[in-house]
Structures are given as structure tokens and as C-alpha cells.
Design a protein that fits this description.
single chain, about 400 residues, alpha+beta, five-stranded antiparallel beta sheet, 13 strands, about 40% helix, about 20% strand, binds 2-acetamido-2-deoxy-beta-D-glucopyranose, signal
């Protein structure tokens, strides 16, 4: 942050001298323009005073996926903006990379700037512009075929943020990468847990999979999982942090009357892509965890103590599991743990505004997931059907009173 502040300060110092000369052509300097230069403690109260909750959220202006320049919008500072995408292969890699071009013109004052967030489901980056000209943003190499296909099809999403949001952006930067399904996302999760929970991650020697025999597993044995990559990884990181637990997910083993072993767990994706409570055969579950789970799970088997196993009522456990099978995952139960007071719901560095910003961006990229997380949680809370915008408002208000 430091170099940016000083560059802007110098720029501001220079342009202040010029203001009298150019006043006839452009609007004079506006107090909001200098907000990014002030420390968060100072700029936040001013920002809250000047803006409504809606202004403070990143606003989606469009997505650039081709050289077509029809994507135009009006920014907060520059009134005429155009963006287009040029794919290239400078990196000589399988999927190549791309250059996002942004042409920003018609600034409303000499001191204003526009702040942008650029996102794909695999990365997020940001930049700020205060010079009226063409700017470029380089993507040297697409992370994977999935990112390449996404950008070809949907483009890089562009969000405009209020200039006073620099503080939030730097915090946003810490949280958003957690959600990306990349090695970067994974190391971000680990760093996040180390920093905020003091958790230590030490790589085990090989083999990474115990040669476990399903014969040794009994009804009532517990599986504690910790996922550290992708959507589940990020969600679990935040969950571990707010709950103080080192497991983000759990499942229970059950044997049926023929002695066949099953695993009952929530958060299993069914054929329609919904996360539901499911009962899977041990073989299917274990095979998924070993070969298909891209969240890089750490799994611990915690056998039930023999005394407790003797008391464990398998019939009742099966009845309970069957009664829940196929039901929605229950994001509401999880998020309940976070949104449980009128104010100060989020531990630092998360604040309601930041959560709202992340969710706004996330909602644009992967609407089905974001909608699940938030609407399930708050519909349950309020006993009603609410729209995303309303809940963003609620959480924003509650965090900033
Ligand atoms: C906005 O910019 C584009 C591209 O630079 C230009 O073609 C267009 O005429 C401009 N529109 C206005 C209203 O200035
Ligand atoms: C980029 O160049 C490399 C090496 O020449 C080639 O293997 C790859 O297929 C190219 N990728 C694209 C997307 O054109
Ligand atoms: C795992 O256990 C089975 C049966 O006990 C044995 O045949 C196999 O060699 C073991 N595999 C490893 C990698 O130890
Ligand atoms: C086990 O649970 C079943 C079903 O709820 C119940 O009928 C039975 O009495 C329970 N057995 C014991 C020993 O508590």
C-alpha cells in the first residue's frame, strides 16, 4: 500500500496546483476523491457518511471476452470506459494468456480515480486508474482449461468500486483467493489458518493414504475432514476460524443389517449439482475421497470407544439418517454460527462490508453457490424469503453501526 499512497500523494500535490487553471473545463476537486489517501480509521467514517450501502459495494459493469468493444460503461470518475480482451500465447503454454484492454476517458475531475476488481473463478486482481488513456492488464497464462474456457465463454468480470474502498480491497485480497480452486487458493487457505488460528501445517512423509481395512470400521465411528482447496476449502477455512475447530466437515459410519458399511454425510453433490445429505457405500465414498475430491481433504478416522459403541443404538441412528437423506445441505446451520448477533458478527479482518463485497463478486461468477449460502442462511434466520440485496444490506448495516 505504501508506494501507492505516495504516488497518489505526489500526483495530488501536482494536480492541486493545476486545479485553478483547469476549473473551467472540469469539475473541481471532490472530498471523496482523497479518501483513498487517508488511513482506514479516518476514511471509513467519512465514507459511511457520504455513501449509502449500495454505493459501497462493487458494481458489476460487464465482462470482456473478445476484441469486440461494445462493452462500455460510466465509471465513478471516468464517464466513458470501454474494455476488450485479446487472447495471446506469449507464454507458449497450453492455453496461452490474454490482455485485457481498458480505455478510460472523460474524467469528471482532476483528482478522481476509478478502482476496479477483475475476476474469474480462478483469480482476482485489482487496479486503479487516474490517467485518461488506454490501460492494459496482463494475464500471462490461464490457470487451466477450465479458466480458459470460462474466459472465452463468459469473459473476465469487471467490477467498479468506490475510490474510498482501498482499505476494503486490501482485506478483500486476503479473503477472496481462499475461494479459488487453485494451488494459490490452497496456499492462501493454509496461510490464512496459520495467521488467524495459529494452525501449523507440516507435510507428512509418504504414503499419504493409510492402508485401512473397512473390516476395522464400525457403526458410530466418526470421520473428521478438513478441506483446504476450492470452494469447500475456503468455506471451511472461514468456518474453522469462526468455530475454533480444525475440522470443517464430518461424517459418520454405519453398518446395515447385512454388515455392509455406509457413510452418512452432508454436503454431497447429487446428479442435479445440489449439495444434499447422502448415505453412500463405504467403497463409493472412499473412492471419491481418494480420487475425485478436488478440495484436497485431510481425513481422520475416530473410532467410537468400545464402551460407547456398546451403547450406540444402530437402529435409531439409521432411522435418523434415513429421515434426513436427500435434504439440502443446510448452509443455514453453518452461517448461523456467523450471523448470530445484531452487530459485530465478523471477527477482524472480516467486516460485513467485506463479506458483502466478496459475496457480490462471487454471486456474479457462480450465482448458484452464493445464492445457496446466503439465501438459505437468512431465509432460515428471518423465516421468510429474502433477496440477496436485502441481506447484503442487513449484514452491512449490522457490521457498521
Ligand atoms: C466513448 O469512447 C469510445 C471509445 O473510445 C468512443 O467511440 C465513443 O464515441 C465515446 N463516447 C462518448 C459519449 O464520448
Ligand atoms: C501456445 O504455444 C504452445 C507452444 O508453441 C502450443 O503448444 C500451445 O498449443 C499454444 N496454445 C494456444 C492456446 O494456442
Ligand atoms: C494393504 O493391505 C493389503 C491387505 O492387508 C495388502 O495386500 C497390500 O499389499 C497393502 N498395501 C500397501 C500399500 O501396504
Ligand atoms: C433403539 O432405537 C429404536 C428405534 O428408535 C428403539 O425402538 C429401541 O428401543 C432402542 N433400543 C435401545 C436398547 O434403546
Amino acid at each position: 500500500m505504501e508506494p501507492l499512497y505516495s504516488i497518489i500523494t505526489i500526483f495530488l500535490a501536482i494536480s492541486c496546483f493545476q486545479i485553478p487553471k483547469v476549473q473551467a473545463f472540469q469539475a473541481p476537486f471532490h472530498p471523496k476523491d482523497i479518501l483513498p489517501l487517508l488511513p482506514d480509521q479516518v476514511s471509513w467514517p467519512i465514507m459511511n457518511y457520504l455513501n449509502s450501502a449500495v454505493d459501497i459495494l462493487p458494481s458489476f459493469v460487464g465482462a470482456a471476452s473478445s476484441t469486440d468493444t461494445t462493452l462500455q460503461w460510466k465509471g465513478a470518475c471516468f464517464y466513458n470506459n470501454t474494455a476488450w480482451m485479446v487472447f495471446h500465447n506469449k507464454s507458449q503454454t497450453e492455453f496461452g494468456g490474454g490482455t485485457l484492454h481498458l480505455k478510460v476517458t472523460n474524467a469528471h475531475s482532476w483528482t478522481c480515480m476509478d478502482l476496479y476488481v477483475f475476476a474469474t473463478p480462478f483469480r482476482v486482481t485489482w487496479d486503479y486508474y487516474f490517467l485518461s488513456r488506454e490501460h492494459t492488464l496482463e494475464f500471462d497464462e490461464w490457470e487451466s482449461k477450465a479458466e480458459y474456457d470460462y474466459v472465452k465463454r463468459k469473459g473476465v468480470a469487471i467490477f467498479l468500486m468506490e475510490a474510498g474502498m482501498l482499505g476494503t480491497l486490501s482485506a478483500f485480497w486476503k479473503v477472496f483467493p481462499l475461494f479459488t480452486n487453485t494451488a494459490w487458493g490452497e496456499s492462501s487457505n493454509i496461510a490464512f489458518l496459520e495467521k488467524n488460528m495459529g494452525a501449523k501445517f507440516e507435510q507428512r512423509p509418504q504414503p499419504w493414504v493409510t492402508n485401512i481395512s473397512s473390516e476395522d470400521i464400525h457403526s458410530g465411528d466418526f470421520l473428521a475432514l478438513s478441506k483446504i482447496r476450492g470452494r469447500w476449502g475456503a468455506f471451511e477455512s472461514l468456518e474453522k476460524w469462526v468455530s475454533g475447530s480444525y475440522a470443517g466437515h464430518s461424517a459418520v459410519c454405519l453398518r446395515d443389517s447385512e454388515g455392509k458399511l455406509w457413510v452418512a454425510e452432508s454436503g454431497h453433490e447429487n446428479e442435479e449439482g445440489e449439495d444434499v445429505i447422502a448415505i453412500l457405500s463405504w467403497e463409493e465414498w472412499w473412492d471419491f475421497e481418494l480420487t475425485k475430491d478436488d478440495s484436497n481433504p485431510h481425513i481422520a478416522l475416530l473410532p467410537l470407544h468400545p464402551d460407547l459403541r456398546a451403547k450406540f443404538n444402530v437402529t435409531a441412528a439409521w432411522e435418523y439418517a434415513r429421515s434426513l437423506e436427500g435434504k439440502p445441505y443446510g448452509y443455514h446451520n453453518l452461517i448461523f454460527a456467523w450471523i448470530d448477533t445484531i452487530e459485530q458478527n465478523y471477527p477482524s479482518p472480516l467486516d460485513a462490508n467485506l463479506v458483502a463485497s466478496v459475496m457480490t463478486v462471487w454471486n456474479q461468477l457462480q450465482p448458484e453457490y452464493a445464492a445457496n449460502m446466503w439465501s438459505e442462511a437468512l431465509n432460515k434466520r428471518l423465516g421468510t424469503e429474502v433477496l440477496l440485496i436485502l441481506l447484503v444490506d442487513i449484514s452491512w448495516n449490522s457490521g457498521n453501526k
